[in-house]
Amino acid sequence: MMRIIDNVEVDEQPIQIQADGVLLDGDLAIPHAAHGVILFAHGSGSSRHSPRNRFVASELHQAGFATLLFDLLTEEEEEVDQVTAHLRFNIGFLAERLVFAADWLTQDRRTASLPTGLFGASTGAAAALLAAVDRPQHVRAVVSRGGRPDLAGKALPAVKAPTLLIVGGDDDLVIGLNEKALARLGSPVKHLVIVPGATHLFEEPGKLDEVAHLAADWFTKHLGAA
Q: Domain range for residue 197?
């Protein structure tokens, strides 16, 4: 379905990804003349409907990138996780789901020719880094928003994709965790940006705009411009 989003024509279609015997729902959005595709890994307790990720996705469309937002969990798994919270912190499990989605992008005719970047939030950032290690030939860049890259653990030195970590200036605990993760990252191109006056969710006026612009610039640099 063609939609006009912020004066950009975007072809948005619901899709399903088969992952280890289950079907995961997603939304694929492709602007005209896209020169890359960004796969989103949402944070703990969130989904493809995350308003923050959808805002960033709309800004990436402006920069000429297609986006895929999809649910890392099925509806049944989500219901269980709302009670137990055990899946949202199972980084290996989430990374496996993300790899299925990355492989799907390389096989679908609409995205097969586009270089892939990963955008991870909260625990999804750690899953994105594990997926980048698992698929180094596909994943060309990674961006983390308010993420927990430290949860990628022993995989951090094996990350080779250019990686940008974005943290709110008032998110003290997560700043420290990101600084330690940055030191362990194996990527030769890595950077930490602390956004002044922003808390963990970047809910303050204009702060999510900063995240979106930083992400668009990073992906443009490392995935290629139009």
A: 2-223
Which residue type, as a one-letter code, is found at position 144?
Answer: S
Q: Are 124 and 88 in contact (CB under 8 A)?
A: no
| CATH number, domain with residue 134 | 3.40.50.1820
**72-130 pLDDT tens trace:** 888 887 777 676 666 667 899 999 999 999 999 999 999 999 999 999 999 999 999 99
**Counted domains in the chain:** 1
Q: Report the Cα 135 to chain-centroid distance in Å.
A: 15
Q: Which residues of the chain have pLDDT under 70?
A: 1-7, 43-47, 81, 83-88, 225-226
Alpha-carbon gap, residue 188 to 145, rounded angstroms:
20
